Amino acid sequence: MAGLTAVRPAPDTDIGLYRTVRLIRRFEERAVELVRSGDIVGGIHPYTGQEAVAAGVCAALRGDDMITSTHRGHGHVLAKGADPARVLAELTGRATGLNRGRGGSMHAADFGLGILGANAIVGANGAITAGAAWAAMQEGRDQVAVSFFGDGAVNQGVLLEAMNLAALWRLPVLFVCENNGYATTLTVADAVAGTITGRGAAFGMPSVAVDGMDPRTVLGVAREAVDRARAGGGPSLVECLTYRFDAHHTWEHKARVRYRDDEEVHSGRQRDPVVIQGARLTAAERELVDAEVESTVDAAVAFALESPHPDPVGALDHLYATGMRARPGGGG
Amino acid sequence: MPWLSYQKALNRALGDEMARDPAVFVLGEDVRVAVSNVTAGLLKRFGPDRVLDTPLSEQAFTGFATGAALLGRRPVIEFQIPALLYLAFEQIVNQAHKFSLMTGGQARVPVTYLVPGSGSKTGWAGQHSDHPYALFAHAGVKTVVPATPEDAYGLLVTAIRDDDPVVVFAPAAALGVRVDVDFDALAPVPLGVGRVHRHGEDVTVVAVGHLVHDALAVAEELAGEVSVEVFDPRTAYPFDWDGLAASVARTGRLVVVDDSNRMCGLAAEVLATAAERFDLLAPPVRVTRPDGAVVPFALALDHAVQPDRMQLTAAIQKVLKH
Fold this sequence. Notes:
Number of domains of chain A: 1
Number of strands of chain B: 14
Order of helices and strands of chain B: EHEHEHEHHHEHEHEEEEHEEHEHEHH
Oligomer: heterodimer
Largest sheet of chain B: 7 strands, mixed
CATH class of the largest domain in chain B: Alpha Beta
Helix content of chain B: 25-40%
Radius of gyration of chain B: 19 Å
Structural class of chain A: alpha/beta
Number of domains of chain B: 2
Number of strands of chain A: 8
Distance between the termini of chain B: 45 Å
Strand content of chain A: 5-15%
């Protein structure tokens, strides 16, 4: 199987899109197992069901384009090209993790790949994305920056302020709203006055809602928005209608919070991005990709669990970029 | 030698750094016309791409600066009113400050948050008169409160060049201070290095910002009866504990005057550390705003909640009784 990784399909091809959604799906399923076994502390916000959004949007990006992500960010980070082994090492709090075990599930970052960090405060990343896009533009580079956020973020003032700045200054930003129907347990119907695309339209930016379960559809819309941004046409908003297959957070597996009935979850899972995209491949192609993904995820799990834990002596390493040390807290 | 005001020193530091480093830019409200005067002339010298007037969106433009800094820019945000920092607290404390650690050292966020006119401006009431440096020091954000024009220049230059976020509080009551200086002698001042403005033998008075000038005035008034040393840490965080230790080792007595609320203020931290580390001849005394003070409007009421010279004089006399 080792030879398979040598020929990675381009991410914007049907086989490439399938590989990305399949990788995210299997990564998340294994991560949930690692939460249950206690290897991942603090739990995760599983991305299962929403894979088409990350896969489609990131397939429209160049390597030097930038993304910011959310508490439910594993999919975005993987789709942007992060090494699954180092992401999983981060989730398991290892020294070899993307963030050296200092960030965990909600803060994965890989600046070398344009991943400017997942962010645990809903809506906070929009403004950071706008600033990064502005800085790239000032330097004469034609990079595009994507801000991923959920339907819960569309009622955060800071995100709406950021949309205004991006539209006002025609920044190369793509605002991607993953509308999975729930802000934790609160439905969109109970939280959003007006519409999500109406938020973008209010600032004069092209705003469309698309089927967020189909990677190819997402890719098509994202590509149009990314090309427009790169050509100086300013920001866009894409609302991807999707469904979260698993819990808001893995604590729900034990807490048994009831806010979606079984029928709804069952029906929501009927349109599965992995199945939708898989249907565009031959059985032989699927088997090939599935095997490669399985071996990649197996290797990632092994790498994470064999990696060393960080030394507590360095708990506050990197607190200051300048290396300044904080006074210790002990009473000695 | 020419006269330099505190306000002009900030303006000069901004201009010098923007000329030295093309990554430096200024953003904020009404900065192009320079309502606060601190950004005067910068638009003409450096153009609109480096002097950005922002909408009244404090959270967004503070987060925007973080994003620009992640790509190597060095933003200086002017906050017209100190309380605007409360709106942007999440973006500074929870985002900019935490990026370096949370990314395992991948990120640097060299943003300077400049508040030209912090503390009471006499008569601006509850929501324009706070001086919240202790909040940022508590959170671990580098926090600077210069007292003099030359320190305002040197500390702002250092803040801009620093690779971490730094908040620079320019007290409203210090903006008019002027000194006769050689402009060529203006230089960066390192963070965390205090300054003894006046040497003394009997008591160390710790003050930052405009209160340094009150402390110096009181020291002069009391010169016949007591020898007061005035120690200005210049940065609330990191704090120059070794500098203070050296001063207290000479004087044996400690008074802190601090324009923070009493509860968890800068003076509270200085007294706590003194209790742990220093051999004092008398219990230390602090002069602060009251617990949880909201600055009332009427002038006499506004003054009533500011630390003043009479309180400082009484505090000095109290520690000398031992």
